[in-house]
Amino acid sequence: MYKVYLNDTLMHDPRIEELALIDPVVELEENKAGSFSFTMPPNHPRYDEIERRKSILSVYQDDELIFCGACIEVEVDFFKQKSVYCEGELSYLNDSIIRPAKYNFTSVRELLEIYIEKHNAQMDEDKQFEVGIVTVADPPSTRMCYSNMNSAMECLKEDLVDDFGGFMRVRHEGGKRYIDYLANSLNTNSQVIRLGVNLLNFKSNIDSSELATAIIPLGAIIQSEEGEQPVQGL
Fold first, then answer.
1. Which of 48, 94, 52, 92 has the alpha carbon at shortest distance from 71?
2. Fewer C-beta within 10 Å: the chain N or C terminus?
3. Mean pLDDT, to the nearest integer, of 69-74?
4. 95 in helix, strand or coil?
5. pTM of the full predicted structure?
């Protein structure tokens, strides 16, 4: 059973009719913030409590927290229904900028702590992280990287995930928000996908826009002996 909380106040429970949301959807991706979207009818008791950039939405599956993030967009239609879009907590790392600097590091945890410390220095407490579990293997020797006015999220992706692999996740424990960097994902689903049973939709597309029927190799552009118009070498 799924429940949704708005700033720690129950907002959705399928067993309570007045607390029902329309089409609630959670989308989760590895190393991305993920999203939560839904439509709220005008008679919902929490209708007036949704605020952009302030409201925090938490989604639980039974007792497990599967999504937590901030309200980003609110649209109201002709019938006064609110369409709400939320981004996960990893998106907080897009709000900080890492100034140009050079970093020498011997472990992935060391670099992760540097970037998180610089992120926290720019954020209010409700958008800060603590470095938690790190299981990604360290480089065999000292490594070097540069920051250049990118967001903390871009730095983590380019200097850690792209180079060392692994998965970033947010974890809540003891009232604190941790960011873990794991060598292996813990979100492996053992369910078998079967056509006509649990596969709802499938689309296949072959893009032929880059397909060539003939390729003509050309050499370098060279100058004529008289230094006149360049000619194409074949």
1. 52
2. C
3. 94
4. coil
5. 0.76
